[in-house]
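We emphasize that the prediction below concerns an isolated chain of 331 residues; any contacts that depend on oligomerization or on bound cofactors are therefore not represented. The input was used exactly as deposited, without trimming of termini.
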Amino acid sequence: MKAQAPPEPTTADGDIRKVGVEIEFAGLDPMATAEMVQSLFDGRIEVQSAHRMKVSDTQWGDFKIELDSHYVHPESPEEAAKAPGDDWDRMRRDLDRRSRELLGDMVTGLVPTEVVCPPVPWDELDKLDALFDGLREHGAKGTEASLLYGFGLHLNPELPSLEAEDILRYLRAYLLSADWLREQIRVDITREVLPHANPFHKRYCLKLFDEDYAPDIDQLIDDYLADNDTRNRDLDMLPLFAHLRPDHPHELFRKELVQPRPTFHYRLPNAQLSEADWGAVTEWNRWLEVERLACAPETLHERMAEYRARHLDSSLWQKIKHKLKGDSKDG
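Result of the prediction step, given as a token string:
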């Protein structure tokens, strides 16, 4: 399957836009995964700790591979170098390292392995799909393999522009497309009940779909945080906003898991490794429905108006019913 071209294929600097990909799965530990990645894309395996690897110097950059839990990873060499260095501290750090390694051994198979791929040009995503084929061939299991597997795939599409009005039209297009995307993905029940990729609230959608809403970057960020004080949105804007405003005072911007970058963070709620033709290209091609809508201003504004009419009318009717119920009680 080939990756389809986006309507805006380059960045403001004229470079081909890139896409970051993250995939979670069970059935394959980090070292076996690193060896498979190296066999596909060359590079060098670097063992950073018992359950954290890196395959560096591939054609696109570095692949990061680890058990997806910070509890099983010891402090980094950089952190250890900053720590006190007497015998007691060295013994404490060594005990902590061995305890975390043992915990990682115990939870392997329950805690997913995660591969964080380097940014790949969108027109080379079909080459990256060799990773998904390799995972299937080596027995990796996706969301559908167990009720315990709340795994997902994340796409991080680089934006064509970092201007507020352009970010807004893409965000509006996503909010209008989100229900359709979830239907296409066929969200697994394990992801429906977990908070990792929650939809946006209607209140926030109505705010953004107001035709008079024309924020600058700072207002766009503050309005987002006012209604979405969480990382758990299906389109997580925090990495982009942290990139644009690294000194923003909100506490979420200080979280280690928020990695600043000029991309959307699209948190797909399924990892469908049981499907033979499923991979990054499948989800990229679906995502492009958002981008096509963002680049069709008349259609975008028509759909915004339809949404507001439908939901504002519904809200008004609920208020009327509440008023009538109160009047009947008074009578």
